[in-house]
UniProtKB/TrEMBL annotation:
A GO biological process held by the record: siderophore-iron import into cell
Protein family per UniProt: Belongs to the binding-protein-dependent transport system permease family. FecCD subfamily.
Gene: hmuU3
Membrane topology: Multi-pass membrane protein
Name of the protein described by the UniProt record: Hemin transport system permease protein HmuU
InterPro entries the record matches: ABC_BtuC-like, ABC_transptr_permease_BtuC
Length: 344
């Protein structure tokens, strides 16, 4: 376990990197804005810059950068809790069907409401797709939990198998949505599935900020019981931990977090899978330290990958989900070879 001073030092260093990366993210794009102009505009809300640059910073790039930080942190801590809950270093929220359910929900919204997209574009982009994605995540998690629970309690193994079944069913539904969609619907579904933060708004920033605050408070308060759960359910129960109640709470919070994140950004993979490994390399498996460190690492990684997605094919924009997969998959394979047997 890290000493308090060591944890504080790591968090300060990571927060500094996040701040610098965030200002850099605000600076890059089709319209070049200097690092210092971006910093002064955000720090002082200065009106010395031309109006169009001021508008680009505060209405487009700043909300997007903040959303990167928040979504990255949410996905990272949800992945951390999922791996601890299932005691499996290869687990992620998608393993219980959350991501697949959210993906199906968003696709249904795109197909159902596409005919209103011309007259009411905000209904699709701001309300319908996020709402249906969130509901899809909650419904998928509810089914998985019900299938894995009986009078004797909740079986992690059954929930894992149920997650595979729900994921398969969700992708079948998604395939049907793709089949009946027209060209524009299919393009919208594909782009949303690949993940993008281009639709960031202050409303989505506030929603994710409130969600992240709730998750950090609840996960931190349950860090010690989750540490006990790593020893095994029987051992945790002997220590007085209400195991079934804890699992229900953590699964619900994870579903809420991933549902909100996917609803505003689309499908972004590997954040919840890789970041917990990096966090354990820094601080070990103690969730009291691992949760805040994972939040910082997730925020940093998604901000960097979003910068890459906006610059590698500029002025075109590469979906951020593709970038996270291209970075995450090889890096995760490397971690498996270097850290196998040492993760927990």
């Amino acid at each position: 376990m890290l000493r308090h001073t060591s944890l504080s030092s790591i968090l300060i260093v990571l927060s500094s990197f996040i701040l610098l990366t965030a200002v850099g993210s605000i600076s890059v794009g089709p319209m070049n804005i200097s690092f210092m102009d971006s910093l002064m505009s955000v720090a002082t809300h200065s009106n010395q810059l031309p109006d169009h640059i001021h508008m680009v910073i505060h209405e487009i790039r700043l909300p997007r950068t903040l959303l990167c930080i928040l979504v990255g942190a949410i996905l990272a801590i949800c992945g951390t809790i999922t791996q601890g809950l299932f005691r499996n270093p290869l687990a992620e929220p998608g393993i219980i069907g959350v991501s697949a359910g959210a993906s199906l929900g968003g696709a249904i919204a795109i197909v159902l409401f596409s005919e209103y997209n011309t007259d009411y574009p905000n209904v699709i982009n701001i309300i319908a797709v996020p709402l249906f994605a969130f509901l899809g995540a909650i419904v998928a998690t509810g089914f998985v939990y019900r299938l894995g629970t009986n009078k004797l309690g909740t079986s992690v193994t059954i929930m894992l198998l149920a997650g595979v079944a729900i994921t398969t069913l969700s992708f079948a539904g998604l395939g049907y949505m793709n089949f009946i969609a027209n060209d524009q619907m299919l393009r919208d579904i594909s782009l949303w599935q690949m993940g993008s933060l281009a639709g960031a708004s202050w409303t989505s920033v506030l929603l994710c900020a409130a969600t992240l605050f709730l998750l950090l408070v609840c996960f931190t308060r349950n860090a010690m019981p989750l540490n006990a759960l790593l020893l095994g359910e029987a051992e945790a129960a002997h220590l007085g931990i209400p195991v079934q109640k804890l699992k229900r709470l953590l699964m619900l919070l994870t579903a809420i977090g991933v549902g909100v994140a996917v609803s505003v950004s689309g499908m972004i993979g590997f954040i919840g899978l890789i970041i917990p490994h990096l966090g354990r390399m820094l601080c070990g498996p103690d969730h009291r330290s691992l949760v805040p460190i994972s939040a910082c690492l997730g925020a940093l990684l998604l901000t960097v990958t979003d910068m890459i997605s906006r610059t590698v094919l500029a002025p075109a924009e590469l979906p951020v989900g593709i970038v996270t997969a291209m970075i995450g998959a090889p890096f995760f394979i490397y971690l498996l070879f270097q850290q196998r047997g040492k993760i927990f």
